User: Fold this.
Amino acid sequence: MRNKIKIKNDEIKKLLGIDSPDFPKYSTQILNLANQNAQGTRPAVVGQMSELIREFSGKSIQEWEEWYLKKHPDAIQRASEKIVEMVGNFKNVMSKIDRQLVENWVHDLVIIKTFIGLRFQEAILRKIGKFLQKDYRLAIPEEESRGIDGFVGNIPVSIKPESYKTKNSLSEHVEAKIIYYQKVKDGISIDIEMLL
Assistant:
């Protein structure tokens, strides 16, 4: 006997007595992407949904719709305007996407971004070494087995994502100063506090 059951999205709608529109194939993917770029359904536009649903005391979808629209009467229109504008931007760029552009994009992803992703530790070490005016080097395999990614001057360092701070892996012992980094929109933000 299995201990888990699954309810698919369509079944959830049926169980709750909700009718929702059918969308043409691929349209929701495009709309989701446009919304991510336009930020049309951010709390500033449509309200903080997790808080609103807790405030709501009704039971039916009709009650929810009426209650929500009283609190945010123009939210759906404002969100839609942002998304429609972004879809327009997508339409404008579609004519510029040809085979060569796709090949350039695939090359950038497979060759350049993969290389950068695998070698960004060296870039971090090089940047810190330059900033602190010290030599740097990557760790050799024996040093890597002890959790060392490289050296700045003669200080062993381990390069970890910010999220490492909250993981259980913190209990592992690393024989190095930890340098935390965070991927940001335009690159990498590096915390070198441990080296100062």
Observations:
- Residues 87 and 93 are 10 Å apart (CA to CA).
- The radius of gyration is 25 Å.
- The chain has eight helices and five strands.
- Helices lie at 9-15, 27-38, 43-46, 49-55, 61-71, 75-94, 99-132, 141-144.
